[in-house]
Each structure stands twice: as structure tokens, then as C-alpha cells.
Design goal:
The complex is a heterodimer of chains A (366) and B (89).
Chain A (H helix, E strand, L loop, with lengths): L3 E2 L2 E5 L3 H13 L10 E7 L2 E9 L2 E7 L8 H15 L6 E5 L3 H5 L3 E6 L4 E6 L3 H13 L6 E6 L6 H11 L4 E6 L9 H11 L6 E5 L21 H26 L1 E7 L5 H15 L16 E5 L3 E2 L2 E2 L2 H10 L2 H7 L2 H8 L4 H9 L5
Parallel strand pairs in A: 5-6, 9-10, 9-12, 10-11, 12-13
Antiparallel strand pairs in A: 1-2, 2-3, 3-4, 4-5, 6-8, 7-8, 14-15
Helix pairs in contact in A: 4-7, 7-8, 9-10, 9-12
Chain B lengths: L6 E4 L6 E7 L5 E7 L2 H19 L4 E7 L4 H16 L2
Parallel strand pairs in B: 3-4
Antiparallel strand pairs in B: 1-2, 2-4
Helix pairs in contact in B: 1-2
The chains are: A alpha/beta (366), B alpha+beta (89).
Chain lengths: 366, 89
């Protein structure tokens, strides 16, 4: 199925030759090929590719127009087509990645800026700012809470004694603690289960609110590379750094002020290179006093990052990935030592059967 | 008539309008009107949109109109198409 715009033909790119043309077009506009893309569109003038754009889950990226066709509405055509295809798939919260120099082009097409790193990446969202309504819900939640709060952002795949130790430590150092559970459903334990096990695991702590992380914290929009196995190559490492920078910028600029958060607590990361890069960038961006280089207002207060050594049992750091490894190896008696009773009870329940089976079959990092 | 699925009609090209209709779980209509000429024509765009939604008697929807300077006949055509698609099984 193809459509035409001003005599240009739209096609989904499949062949090696088409994808090579597309890479050349992206490179000529200073862009790189996005990771994990699902749908790549092209507009052709005869056999020449003049515009391209891709849909990766709910994020439009890799949008480029050949110099010879600039200013002819070709970008609008490709963006419209990508939006249509996303909506057809039932996706209505749509984001767009670009470089910060190109923000205004996409603002003219009805996107609004969420965050941008100067001379780096920018994240925009489609339509009128969804982040505003998200932030008002956070402000409403924080209204009757103390003015000085802390935050922990965790995936908990599943909730272990390590998470418990981090939350316990954090909650004893701030008047109020928000625990934001990564909502993106791409982990072996479904979000619904991860969320419930966190709630049950910290139910005795009086000054803790467990909440959904929402679309602006470690999501397919803010941090897509978090969910894929990282490549050692340089481009992929750059992508991880770029996404991590955007994610923590959004936290400092928007989320921390809305929740009145002045401290963020993280565990040291002994195993996962992506998370350890994330922690390193978090320390730089959240704590920076000179804010100009990061593109946000100097009035936005810094957030102190507390990196807490991983909770250890018998000299080994406790982590969710260890727990999953043990499940994979069938070593359940060892699992019991690493998780609180609430998680253990769930792991033994009927509900856990399909999840346990999936873990045994999978070699996914998450 | 309840809106059953998310649909679009039109485009973001100049002189066109992109209409998106998304189902809501509640029985109400939510409007989100954007236009590059919102100051001059915002009220008219809203009136045309609301009238067409009312005539079609649809409910449970968010109607997102992103106008890029479309003529009124274009807006009406895009709205009509989107509404038809949103209630088709």
C-alpha cells in the first residue's frame, strides 16, 4: 500500500538498499540510526529517497528530509503518516526524539518540548503538553506532604531485600519518601506484580508513598535503551548516555520540584553497565549548581544524590538479576534468602507459575 | 454512539488539519483544539467541531484537532471522516 504526497511515493523500508539510502540520508543530516526501531518509512522521488522517519514503540525518531526537498512540507507528511500508524496501533501518547537545534521545526508541527540537552538530544510530545497534567497530579499528591522529601526510582524485578534496605535507609533520612516504580511493562515480572510487591514490602514504613513511575521516568520515551541489552559499540553507548541525560533532566526540571524532592537515593550498581552509567550521569545533572550547560533554569534547585552501597548477604550484593538467575537455575532455596517474605509468598503462589516459566526460558536482561 | 477506537483523518501538512479521535472510558467529550491561527479562527474551529460531534451523537471521546490553516470545508471533511472511522466496527 502506498500513498503519494506532491508526487512523492511513501513506502515502508525493508530492503538492504533502501535502508542503506536511509542511513546515508540520516548521516547527511547529522543523525544516527535509532535503536530497536519497528517501522521505518520513506518518501521517494522516483528511486531517490527524499525523506524518512521511524516509529519505535510510541516514539517517532530518525526523521530527516533531503536538502533538495526542504521546506516543501515533506517533514509534515512523514510525521503525519507516522502519527496515523501509531494511532492505528492504539498508541495515543506519542513522543518524538530529535536534536535540540531542530526543536522549533517540530513545535511548528504541533509538538511540545519535554526536555532538551543543549547541543544534544531533545524529547517532544505530541499535542498539548501531557507533562503538565502529569505534574499537576504529582503536585496534588505532594500537597499535604512535608516540604522536604526524598525519592527512589526502582524497577524491582522482583522486590528483594536489597530494595528493602535502600528504601528503609532512605526513609530514615528524609521526612517523606516517594518510591516511583518503573511503569513500562517490559520486564519479566509484570508491572502490576512489581508494584504490588513493593507496596507489600514497605507497608510498615509510615513515611513512604509508593507510586507509579508514569511515562516520564525510565520509560520507552525517556530511556528506551534501558530496556534493551546494551551493545559495547560506541554508538550504542552514546545512545545510553543521551537517554540517561534526558531522563535525569526531566527528573530535575519537572518531577523533583513537583514532589518537593531534594534527595534522590540509589544503590551502587555492581552488575549492570547501563544502570551504572545512569547513576554517574544522575550525580552530575541532579547536583549541578551551574545549570546553563544542561539547559535549565538556575532557579531549579539541585537534588542531592545519595549512592548507598548495595545490601550484601554473605559478601555478595543482593540484586534482582541475581534472584532471576537463581530462578533460572532452579535454585529456589537460595532465592528465599534474598527476598522478603511478601515476595517469597508470591513466588510460591499459583499466579507466579507463568512468570517463573518465562524467566526459565528467557535470557533477557530484564 | 460510543467511540470504539482511536483514529485519525487529515494530516499536519500546510492548509490541512489532523483530527484524532480517541475513546474515553467515561461518557463525555473532551476537546483539544490547536491551530496556527488560533487567535483569528480558534472560536470558529471549536464551534464547527462541537456542532459536528453533536450532530453525529457520539460520546466517550477525546477529540484532538491540530489545524494547520485548513479551510472550513477541509475541517468539516476531516471531522466527518474521523467520526465515521471512530464508530465503525
Amino acid at each position: 500500500m502506498s500513498e503519494t504526497f506532491f508526487g512523492l511515493e511513501e513506502r515502508i523500508l525493508h530492503t538492504k538498499d533502501e535502508l542503506a539510502q536511509r542511513e546515508a540520508l540520516l548521516t547527511s543530516r547529522g543523525l544516527t540510526v535509532p535503536e530497536g526501531e519497528e517501522l521505518v518509512l520513506g518518501l521517494f522521488d522516483g528511486e531517490q529517497l527524499v525523506a524518512t522517519g521511524a516509529l519505535v514503540r510510541n516514539v517517532l525518531q530518525g526523521i530527516a528530509v533531503d536538502m533538495s526537498h526542504e521546506g516543501e512540507g515533506v517533514a509534515a507528511a512523514i510525521v503525519s503518516s507516522l502519527i496515523k500508524r501509531a494511532v492505528d496501533r492504539g498508541i495515543t501518547q506519542i513522543f518524538l526524539y530529535t536534536v535540540s537545534e531542530d526543536i522549533s521545526r517540530f513545535e511548528n508541527l504541533g509538538f511540545s518540548k519535554v526536555a532538551a540537552v543543549p547541543k544534544g538530544a531533545a524529547l517532544l510530545e505530541w499535542g498539548s503538553a501531557g507533562i503538565e497534567s502529569y505534574l499537576s497530579s504529582l503536585k496534588a499528591l505532594a500537597e499535604d506532604k512535608p516540604d522536604h522529601a526524598g525519592a527512589v526510582v526502582i524497577n524491582c524485578n522482583p522486590f528483594t531485600l536489597g530494595h528493602r534496605a535502600l528504601i528503609e535507609y532512605a526513609s530514615s533520612h528524609v521526612p517523606w519518601l516517594y518510591v516511583l516504580v518503573v511503569e513500562e511493562d517490559r520486564s519479566l515480572f509484570p508491572f502490576r506484580v512489581r508494584y504490588r510487591l513493593v507496596q507489600e514490602g514497605v507497608a510498615d514504613l509510615r513515611n513512604v508513598t509508593v507510586m507509579k513511575g508514569g511515562p516520564y521516568i525510565i520509560s520507552s520515551a525517556t530511556f528506551p535503551t534501558y530496556f534493551i541489552r546494551p551493545d559495547a559499540n560506541e554508538a550504542s553507548q552514546r545512545a545510553v548516555r543521551m537517554h540517561a541525560s534526558l531522563d535525569v533532566s526531566i527528573f530535575r526540571m519537572h518531577i523533583a520540584p513537583a514532589l518537593k524532592v531534594a534527595d534522590r537515593f540509589v544503590g551502587t550498581e555492581p552488575y549492570c553497565p547501563t544502570t551504572s552509567v545512569y547513576n554517574e550521569i544522575m550525580k552530575i545533572i541532579l547536583q549541578a549548581r551551574e545549570t546553563e550547560a544542561f539547559g535549565f533554569d538556575a532557579k531549579i534547585p539541585p537534588v542531592t544524590v545519595h549512592e548507598i552501597p548495595r545490601f550484601e548477604i554473605g559478601g555478595t550484593p543482593v540484586s534482582a538479576s541475581k534472584v532471576r538467575d537463581m530462578i533460572r537455575e532452579g535454585n529456589l532455596s537460595e532465592v528465599q534468602k534474598l527476598v522478603p517474605k511478601t515476595t517469597w509468598d508470591w513466588l510460591k503462589s499459583d499466579e507466579a507459575v507463568p512468570v517463573m516459566e518465562r524467566i526459565r526460558q528467557s535470557d533477557s536482561r530484564h | 454512539m460510543r467511540v470504539l477506537k482511536s483514529v485519525t483523518a487529515g494530516s499536519l501538512e500546510s492548509s490541512d488539519v489532523l483530527v484524532t479521535i480517541m475513546p474515553l472510558s467515561e461518557d463525555r467529550i473532551e476537546y483539544d483544539i490547536e491551530s496556527i491561527v488560533i487567535k483569528q479562527y480558534g472560536r470558529r474551529i471549536r464551534k464547527v467541531t462541537e456542532d459536528m460531534v453533536e450532530i453525529a451523537k457520539i460520546t466517550g471521546a477525546r477529540i484532538h484537532v491540530q489545524d494547520r490553516g485548513a479551510l472550513e470545508c477541509t475541517l468539516r471533511a476531516r471531522l466527518e471522516t474521523a467520526i465515521e472511522r471512530s464508530i465503525a466496527c
